């Protein structure tokens, strides 16, 4: 596997850091999760199956657990000895916390010059908001993406996905791998300052036309991506379900309206978003005449970007995701998310075993003391 031989020490909690280190574990890295005496919080958040939280199962598989009280000088020394043998160190605390514990980059890199040190925080290590506490919702609100998540009543809705968390996870993974690649040439590690807000804002290129071109906020319901385009929006069906049209290219509009017997409406889809009301009104009325199952049959073979709005359990049971091994079941009947990074050579080998809290203290502490 691609990351075999890489040792990762992970102090992060909740989602961004644990998710990125799980991806590293899936591809062969040895990931040592350092847990506080109370344990990783996600061990006890949300629904459980076979004794473990689903959230924890899908962020901590294949890791080792080292339980330490970092306020205890002796246990902190044990951690320092372990980090001396590590390739990567990940932490997700507020800026300054690691320095107070003597676990800052300057201290650790002096002991281990090849260490790749990754800090993940809400707003980054610099700037006026650096010490402000926040989780995903607050970061999305602060960054303008809750504003973009406008409901039919014109008011902002709570976002369905923790995209600030997940964007930070992927940016951190990318940065760590870049640093490891450079270290192979220089022998020197590096420090990564990953801000969840920075990571989220970096995902906004398609939303920034009004902001960067005209110095204004978008009118959400009239924009191309959020309802202003007839061929890129959500429609209700006769049975109270929904479908989406998700391709605004005019060729798809021509194919759709030709089959509907209204080819002239395709021309309306050449207009700017927010000026396609006639086509939208027609499609709203037309889609409301049949059930989602009827429309699914109607769309078969038609070259149009469309999809049913599936319930989440429907989506994860869908045949294509099973074929892609993005959902699989272990021998105990626990379902897991699969690996999205698929190599032809040296593919990931998922280890679904979960560590008990502090399970690896004896082996890891003894080994660090011997070193």
Automatic annotation (TrEMBL):
Keyword annotations from UniProtKB, A to Z: Transferase
Pfam families: CoA_transf_3 (PF02515)
Organism superkingdom: Bacteria
Gene3D superfamilies cross-referenced by the UniProt entry: Crotonobetainyl-coa:carnitine coa-transferase, domain 1 (3.40.50.10540), formyl-coa transferase, domain 3 (3.30.1540.10)
SUPFAM superfamilies named among the record's database cross-references: CoA-transferase family III (CaiB/BaiF)
EC assignment: 2.8.3.17
The keyword Ribonucleoprotein is annotated on this UniProt entry: no
GO molecular function: cinnamoyl-CoA:phenyllactate CoA-transferase activity
Protein's UniProt keywords contain Transferase: yes
Matching PANTHER family: ALPHA-METHYLACYL-COA RACEMASE, SUCCINYL-COA--D-CITRAMALATE COA-TRANSFERASE
The name this protein goes by in its record: E-cinnamoyl-CoA:R-phenyllactate CoA transferase
Organism expressing this protein natively: Microbulbifer aggregans
